[in-house]
Each structure stands twice: as structure tokens, then as C-alpha cells.
Amino acid sequence: MSAASSIECCSVGVAFGRNDFAVSDLTLHVGGGEIISLIGPSGCGKTTLLRAIAGLQPMTVGRVEMNPPADTSRGQIGFVFQQPSLLPWATALENVQLPLDIIGRGQPQERRRAALDALRSVKLADAGEKRPHELSGGMQMRTSIARALVTDPSVLLLDEPFAALDDMLRGELGELLLSLWDQRRFTAVMVTHNIAESILLSRRIAVMRGGILESVLENPIPWPRDQSQMRTAEFAAFFGVVSDHLRGAVDNPGRTPDGV
Ligand SMILES: Nc1ncnc2c1ncn2[C@@H]1O[C@H](COP(=O)(O)OP(=O)(O)OP(=O)(O)O)[C@@H](O)[C@H]1O
């Protein structure tokens, strides 16, 4: 596996109209092997920032640096989107193997073995021959996660990955993500609307509003994480802190030095 890259967003600005900045002068450091959540009201620029980090969205100003550099075309950056977006005519195994086929890594047999390993890692070892319509929503999302991880990326970018799932599945897949991170230690940036999920899964929470970074909150919940922590007083208290920042009820005291 490649070393987890740190991510440096330096004064990133993305404008869609002449002066219409969806993301404005945004500077953020994400440490190698860190999981950080991007949270904020609808339309505040979370997806635009994630796409800029991925290299999918040209920036109007600023730059994004990864160290060591991570390159999508070499499978070093993985994506998980809200919709699993699997090829309907391909089996789960073929879907997972697809990124390896595209970048042309290894011999066909090695690719198949890697895809099987990735499916096993998301507890879908027995579903490889099924097509997407034969999989439940949760299984489709597991397949999508396996596809994102099959190339052993050093950076994983997730855009509201569990938003379409019910609470039980959401919690289950959150814990799966934590265990995958524990084994692989990739750097992850996850967009979510769900405060509890952002607290359970990430080390820091970047709160955005109107295209700017409102604050970066250090998450006090100890590691290792699991869902039982969601019932603690500490979790509830931090939930309140994040909510206040989201509502704009706090005047920025939560910034950490590398999130300025
Ligand atoms: N391709 C585009 N062309 C023009 N405007 C865009 C484009 N993509 C995004 N925008 C605008 O940029 C702003 C930020 O959008 P973005 O999708 O990044 O927000 P978001 O915080 O991810 O929202 P949500 O939580 O609803 O997904 C919005 O005003 C949106 O309309």
C-alpha cells in the first residue's frame, strides 16, 4: 500500500460565474492518515472542494498539494459517492476489478485476486458473481467501497457515502469504514450532512459556510471508535458544539492551527 498522503489546500478558490465563488480562499491541511469530515449547509461548497481536491474541478485560484503526490490515473486516489454507481451489466467482482483494468495494473489473474480480496474486506466474499440489481442498497455501497479501495489508494474521498441508507446500515457501514481505515490507514476526506457520523468517523471536523471554512474542530472522542461511544455524554456534548458551529452560533473559537 502507498504511504498515506497529506493534503494541503492553499487558498483554494473555485468560481462558477465571473465573481460567483462556490469556494473562496480556503486553506486546510489534512494530515497523512487522518480522517477529516467536511460539514456545512447545503450549497456551502463541500462537494466543490472535494472535487477540487480530487483534481476533478479546476480551481480559479490557489492549489492543492499532496505529499507524497497521489495521482487518480494511477489509482492512488479512491472515490466513494452517495450513489454506488455500479455498472448494471457487470458482476460485483467485475465492478470492483474495473479500476485495476482501467489503470492496467498487474495480470488479469492478479487483478481478480485483488478484487476478491477487496470484496472480502467489505464482507462480500460470497456476492462476487451477483449483479447490482441482486444486491441490497447496503451491499451495493460495500461494493462501491471495495471498488474505491481495490487499488490501495493513499487518499480516499467520500461524498455523502451513506446518505441514502437507513440509520442501522449507516452505523454498520461507518464501523466498516473505521475497520478498513484501521487496516490500511489511508487519508480520508468525507463530506457528510450527518453530525453524529462526522463525529464517529473523523479526527477533525471542518465546518464550511458560504464557501469559506468557518472552523476546524478537534474531535475529543477517543480512539478506537465504535458506535457505543455515540451514547456517551462526551459525544452528546461535542454534538452540541458542532451543531452550534453549523448554525453559526459560535464566533470561530474552534479553529486549530493547521486549519486556519
Ligand atoms: N458545475 C457547476 N456550475 C455552476 N454552479 C455550480 C456547479 N457546481 C456547484 N455549483 C454551485 O456551487 C455552490 C456549491 O455547490 P456544492 O455542490 O459544492 O455545495 P454542497 O455544500 O456540496 O451542497 P450539498 O450539501 O447540497 O450537496 C452551489 O451554489 C452550487 O449551485
From TrEMBL:
The keyword Nucleotide-binding applies. InterPro entries: AAA+_ATPase, ABC_transporter-like_ATP-bd, ABC_transporter_ATP-bind, P-loop_NTPase. The keyword Secreted does not apply. SUPFAM superfamilies: P-loop containing nucleoside triphosphate hydrolases. Keywords: ATP-binding, Nucleotide-binding, Transport. GO terms for molecular function: ATP binding; ATP hydrolysis activity. SMART domains: AAA (SM00382). It holds the Pfam family ABC_tran. Gene3D superfamilies: P-loop containing nucleotide triphosphate hydrolases. Residues 7-235 form the ABC transporter domain. This is ABC transporter ATP-binding protein. It comes from Roseiconus nitratireducens.
